[in-house]
Amino acid sequence: MKTLLITPEGLEKLKAELDHLWRVERPDTTQKVTWAASLGDRSENADYHYNKKRLREIDKRVLYLRKCMDDLKVVHYSPFQEGKVMFGAWVEIENEKGLKKRFRIVGSEEIIGSKDYISMDSPMAHALLKKEVGDDAIVKTATEQFIWRITKIEYQK
């Protein structure tokens, strides 16, 4: 089961996406469907079929976003988080070979399109949670385990 947490920034992005879909894309696509339908025979009308499909996709996403946003719990920064890896943290880690990574631990709804975000539900996040700078985190996958040392923890305030 995925965690239903989100950062304030993540919620704003979802709201902006919903607003764009509802106020811009849906009216534009509806207009295209109406225009394509006015041309007559719809059986071989590619514009009509494509835009009807797109309209269904928009409506499905709008419905999903509305329900999803009702269920999500926004986690705001709190000073008690300082010094420990918790939800919303930017974490820098390094392995024994010197490979460094930096990412933010967020809810699953926020990781789409963000290469430097990881899900709170990922094995990496589970291994890092509640650890401090200098601690080692053992990340277990189905085939291997990796050891990462935490070098920095930051929060957006």
Features:
single chain; 157 residues; alpha/beta; Helix Hairpins; Chitinase A, domain 3; 2 domains; five-stranded mixed β-sheet; 3 helices; 7 strands; 39% helix
Provide a brief overview of the structure:
This protein has three helices and seven strands. It has helices spanning about 10-35, 45-70, 125-130, and strands spanning about 5, 75, 90-95, 100-105, 115-120, 135-140, 145-155. With about 160 residues, it is an alpha/beta fold.
Description:
With 157 residues, the chain is an alpha/beta fold. α1 (8-37) runs antiparallel to α2 (46-71). The chain has two domains: 5-74, Helix Hairpins, CATH 1.10.287.180; 79-154, Chitinase A, domain 3 (Roll). Strands 5-4-3-7-6 form a five-stranded mixed β-sheet. The protein has helices spanning 8-37, 46-71, 123-128; strands at residues 5-6, 73-74, 90-95, 100-106, 117-119, 136-140, 145-154. Helices cover 39% and strands 22% of the residues.
Fraction in helix: 25-40%
The tally of domains stands at 2
Percent strand equals: 15-25%
What is the CATH superfamily label of the largest domain?
Transcription elongation factor, GreA/GreB, C-terminal domain
Shape: elongated
The fold-level CATH name of the largest domain is: Chitinase A, domain 3
User: Low-confidence parts lasting 5 or more residues at pLDDT below 50?
Assistant: none
Beta strands, count: 7
Number of helices: 3
SS-based class:
alpha/beta
The termini sit apart by 28 Å
CATH architecture of the largest domain: Roll
Identify the CATH class of the largest domain. Answer: Alpha Beta
Taking all Cα atoms into account, the compactness measure Rg is 21 Å
Element order, helices and strands?
EHHEEEEHEE
Mean pLDDT level: 93
Strand count, sense and barrel status of the largest sheet are: 5 strands, mixed
In what order do the strands lie side by side in the largest sheet?
5-4-3-7-6
